[in-house]
Amino acid sequence: MTRSDMLKNAATVAGLAGVYFLAGKLGLQLAYVHASAAAVWPCTGIAIAALLVFGYRVWPGILIGAFLVNVTMAGSLATSIAIAAGNTLEGLAGCYLVNRFAHGKEAFARAQDIFKFALLAGLVATTVSATIGVATLAAGGFADWAAFGSMWCTWWLGHALGAVLVTPLLLLWWENPRLTWTRDQITELAFLFMGLFSTAWIVFGEPFHSELKNYPFEYLCIPFLVWAAYRFGRRKSATALCALAALATWGTLHGFGPFARESRNTSLLLLQAFMGITAITTLALAAEVSGHRRAEERVRNLAVSDPLTGLANYRQLVEALETEIKRFGRNERPFVLLLLDLDGLKKINDAHGHIAGSRALCRLADMLRLYSREMDTAARYGGDEFVLILPETDAEAARLVAQRISKRLLEDGEEPKISVSIGMAVYPGDGETSNEILGAADRDLYREKGVPKKRFLLPS
């Protein structure tokens, strides 16, 4: 590890320790059954997310942060070290189990992995910290053994919900921090969050508490979470869940909402159970919706692209040609069609194998992408033949493009060396229909190759 890497790692560890400490102090403000057992503990989610993103090397940050939190609360130096060790082991165990069984950082991409995450990181790994922490406090005389059960349940549930709510929020925003929203999406998001906050305020706020406190109106918030899952995917669903959890926690602590009881700790535990089930369901739904959209996008891409080279396929070529012909009818700007034929593909296959032949086709496709503008269309017609449509281009400019492609192929440094023959046709001078323009490019190509032309037609 270089000095720069060591400094970067030290900064990451220090930053993690600081964030963990601040979140821990905030969580312990809500510790009612014991000063070290909080029903709200976001630190577990922070720890697991950090380990999944940065790797196991940042574990000292968790240990330091957890120690600083506990040494300033109830207990001694020894109990603080033991509790910090338990919190660190909890994070390491959760990270290992998620990496091993739930695809690590990709755990929130599929519903089945979300359920595995909830089970392994949320329910299993958190038993480590709860058991070590409560046993340490009881053995050190800082807690009553008779209260072991209630303390353990509070500790465990607080850490479990920290994992289920906070980890997906951090991981999904870390994975894609960009905000590329359209005006319509911003408007819809505004209505979504206004509706969610308004409903949460009615359910968990003071104005309607006396009328609604005995009814299960917390489920009125679920349609907004379903809306977020269907329309905006995993990242915004995780954000909506955390926003709802924060507002509902505030209301419950003030004695409002359907979960308010005489005991604040009991109230928080009931709320956490509701939020845990809601979070897992919402994230799983969002993952399924996102998965279906990705599958639909792949199908659309397969319908219009060549599977080997990734260029437009025959179908897309026909549509692009017809589009350019119609565009000429509107603005009378000509376009040029280049027809490219990879020389000696059969010889490459015979001498070097079909993998080398496929690679040669991909090398030519890469050159077409390199020298294509956004408005151009590069397509594989079939076999060793490719087409490049250059809108609003004259013959001289198209000839320069052809020369650059040919020259770059000869100099790309890969073996075997490949070359390309190129025919050119200008619309409408060389033809007024798709078949005519392709036929003209075909004749020009085979004049260059010095062999009889072949018939090159699109269906009418």
Brief summary:
With 460 residues, the protein is α+β, with helices and mostly antiparallel strands.
Q: How many β strands by DSSP?
A: 4
Low-confidence stretches: 451-460
Number of domains: 2
Cα-to-Cα separation, first versus last residue: 65 Å
Mean pLDDT: 90
Structural class: alpha+beta
Please report the number of helical segments: 16
> Could you estimate the helical fraction of the residues in percent?
55-70%
Mind summarizing the main beta sheet?
4 strands, antiparallel
Order of helices and strands: HHHHHHHHHHHHEHHEEHEH
Q: How would you portray this structure in words?
A:
The protein is an alpha+beta fold and 460 residues long. The protein folds into two domains: 3-301, no CATH class; 314-449, Reverse transcriptase/Diguanylate cyclase domain (Alpha-Beta Plaits), CATH 3.30.70. It has 16 helices and four strands. Strands 2-3-1-4 form a four-stranded antiparallel sheet, sandwiched between helices. β2 and β3 form a beta hairpin. The model is unreliable at 451-460 (pLDDT under 50).
For this entry, give a set of tags:
460 residues; Alpha-Beta Plaits; 2 domains; four-stranded antiparallel β-sheet; 16 helices; elongated; disordered C terminus
Question: What's the helix and strand layout?
Answer:
Elements: H1 3-28, H2 43-54, H3 59-71, H4 77-101, H5 111-124, H6 126-139, H7 148-175, H8 183-204, H9 209-212, H10 222-253, H11 264-304, H12 314-331, E1 335-342, H13 345-352, H14 354-370, E2 377-382, E3 385-391, H15 395-410, E4 420-427, H16 434-449
Antiparallel strand pairs: 1-3, 1-4, 2-3
Helix pairs in contact: 1-2, 1-3, 2-4, 2-7, 3-4, 4-5, 4-6, 5-7, 5-11, 6-7, 7-10, 7-11, 8-10, 10-11, 13-14
